């Protein structure tokens, strides 16, 4: 009810001291006390349940934005190689993805607190405006740095659109039913992600990659208009002075950590040797910045980006780490499956087709998991099942060669998508069920922070593995030949060079590409296995059937 209060600054407290096989061992059965630098006087608003008709209108409006955000994610995955080629730098590929994802990592965790203060509707309108502006900048970019700047702006908006849509569902839908709603949202995401690769490839092959960005702008304007008129959830805190509690310092130190890590990993062995001062200093400073981030979150921030106290909850920590590892692996496969097929000789449009089964799988896994949890009220065993599916799909993908029948890749991608989509829904409900109602937006933001940093680090690691293995493979095979250094540089900067290789180069070049891509997929497999291990540590909590739930597990 508006004005009603919920327990604050802690994990949900059990109504009984009874202990059984589902009782958490680490803080899940005791309420955490707030840290000394936080207060518990803030008023929390719990929104009344609304009619089904109004719920459909509200969620339909925000999920249109989710669709557009997903469309953009696979447009850029498919077009990264053509864009990088047009700027004569395949090393730009990782920056196109990472610039967007770093902005996600900074803004998604803040979006929970900011929209508590300024309302979900305001946050969605601002996010749509930023997303449209970023795509406009990308479509008009004439330099690499302008392109990267556009991806940063788009990432700020796209991250907010994705995260706030989840907050709105949490505000309006009881926890037990939320798995189904989240599944429907992920179907919208899957539809956008599935069509984005195909749409981006078709637009690139027909009009050029710039049109793929410019054509999104009017659609995002429509999305912003819809949420302006339909999302009417009041701010959860009454005083704008609460803005002083937002953790801008945590967001800043997190961004510095990621940028330095990205700079070091992208430069090492690619632009300069691993022993070069640029690499050593960047990676060392990233460790220092990470330590500063942890200190800020634990000791300084009033409302931390990643609440260290809540991470003492075993289920919360396990869910966040599961998201972190599996998102790293997923973004590796999402960005490098199209490159695999473009190297194989397929057009950009045809390569984009291979993202569709992964998106369909994500929709099936997410909605199916939501329906199962709605009926059973359980998620732990289901979580292990979907994570195992994810590991199997990633493992099979690592067996791909340029001689593998192309239809087999559809099956592998579908399994990866099914496992990842199911994981998203399971871990979201596991995390939310482990904390009290007033911590839902904060802990959901923290989950998104783990996903965002995971996606950024995953792309960065994949790029480092790919570029280093490719460079090493090419030099091993062709050093000593006339003009080898210049030819290797051109091969690494543009996939178009694969169509006009000198005599005697074809087999060696494709072998080097095959080893580089397999290295990426094997790295993804290792991360998928770590995600499965982390997921095994989640504990079962109650999935409540009402919004104003009792905090008992």
Automatic annotation (TrEMBL):
- The organism's superkingdom is given as Eukaryota
Topology with regard to the membrane? Multi-pass membrane protein
Q: Name one GO cellular component term.
A: endomembrane system
Q: Provide the GO MF annotations for this entry.
A: basic amino acid transmembrane transporter activity
InterPro entries (alphabetical): MFS (IPR011701), MFS_dom (IPR020846), MFS_trans_sf (IPR036259)
Alphabetical keyword list: Membrane, Transmembrane, Transmembrane helix, Transport
Q: Which SUPFAM superfamilies match?
A: MFS general substrate transporter
Primary subcellular site in the record, as a coarse category: membrane
Pfam families according to UniProt:
MFS_1
Query: What ranges does the record give for the region Disordered, renumbered to this chain?
Result: 1-41
- Location relative to the cell: Endomembrane system
- What protein is this chain from? Major facilitator superfamily (MFS) profile domain-containing protein
Source organism per UniProt: Amorphotheca resinae ATCC 22711
């Amino acid at each position: 009810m508006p004005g009603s209060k919920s327990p604050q600054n802690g994990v949900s407290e059990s109504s009984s001291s009874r202990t059984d096989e589902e009782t958490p061992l680490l803080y899940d059965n005791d309420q955490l006390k707030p840290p000394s630098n936080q207060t518990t006087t803030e008023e929390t608003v719990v929104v009344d349940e609304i009619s089904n008709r109004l719920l459909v209108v509200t969620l339909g409006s925000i999920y249109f934005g989710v669709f557009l955000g997903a469309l953009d994610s696979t447009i850029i995955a498919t077009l990264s190689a053509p864009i990088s080629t047009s700027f004569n730098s395949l090393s730009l590929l990782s920056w196109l993805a990472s610039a967007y994802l770093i902005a996600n990592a900074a803004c998604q965790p803040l979006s929970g607190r900011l929209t508590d203060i300024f309302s979900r509707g305001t946050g969605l309108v601002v996010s749509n405006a930023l997303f449209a502006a970023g795509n406009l900048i990308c479509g008009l970019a004439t330099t690499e740095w302008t392109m990267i700047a556009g991806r940063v702006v788009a990432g700020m908006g796209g991250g907010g659109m994705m995260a706030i849509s989840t907050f709105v569902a949490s505000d309006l839908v009881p926890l037990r039913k939320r798995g189904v709603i989240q599944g429907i949202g992920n179907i919208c995401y899957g539809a956008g992600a599935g069509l984005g690769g195909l749409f981006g490839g078709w637009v690139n092959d027909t009009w050029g990659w710039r049109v793929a960005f410019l054509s999104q702008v009017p659609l995002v304007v429509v999305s912003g208009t819809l949420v302006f008129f339909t999302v009417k959830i009041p701010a959860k805190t009454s005083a704008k002075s609460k803005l002083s509690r937002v953790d801008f310092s945590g967001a800043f130190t997190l961004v510095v950590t990621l940028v330095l890590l990205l700079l070091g990993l992208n430069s090492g062995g690619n632009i300069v040797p691993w022993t070069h001062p640029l690499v050593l200093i960047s990676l060392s400073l990233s460790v220092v910045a990470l330590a500063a981030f942890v200190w800020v979150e634990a000791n300084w921030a009033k409302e931390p980006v990643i609440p260290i106290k809540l991470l003492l909850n075993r289920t919360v920590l396990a869910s966040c780490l599961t998201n972190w590892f599996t998102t790293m692996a997923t973004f590796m496969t999402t960005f490098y499956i199209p490159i695999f097929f473009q190297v194989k000789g397929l057009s950009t449009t045809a390569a984009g087709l291979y993202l569709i089964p992964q998106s369909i799988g994500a929709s099936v896994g997410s909605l199916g998991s939501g329906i199962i949890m709605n009926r059973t009220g359980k998620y732990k065993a289901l979580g292990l099942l979907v994570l195992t599916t994810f590991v199997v799909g990633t493992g099979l993908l690592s067996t791909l060669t340029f001689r593998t029948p192309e239809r087999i890749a559809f099956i592998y991608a579908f399994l990866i998508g099914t496992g990842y989509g199911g994981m998203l829904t399971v871990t979201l409900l596991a995390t939310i069920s482990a904390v009290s109602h007033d911590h839902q937006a904060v802990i959901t933001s923290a989950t998104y922070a783990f996903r965002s940093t995971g996606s950024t680090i995953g792309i960065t690691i994949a790029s480092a593995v790919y570029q280093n293995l490719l460079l090493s493979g090419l030099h091993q095979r062709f050093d000593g030949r006339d003009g080898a250094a210049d030819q290797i540089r051109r091969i690494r900067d543009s996939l178009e060079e694969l169509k006009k290789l000198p005599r005697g180069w074809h087999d060696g070049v494709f072998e080097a590409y095959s080893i580089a891509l397999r290295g990426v997929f094997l790295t993804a497999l290792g991360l998928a296995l770590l995600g499965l291990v982390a997921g095994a540590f989640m504990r079962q909590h109650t999935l409540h059937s009402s919004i104003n739930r009792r905090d008992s597990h």
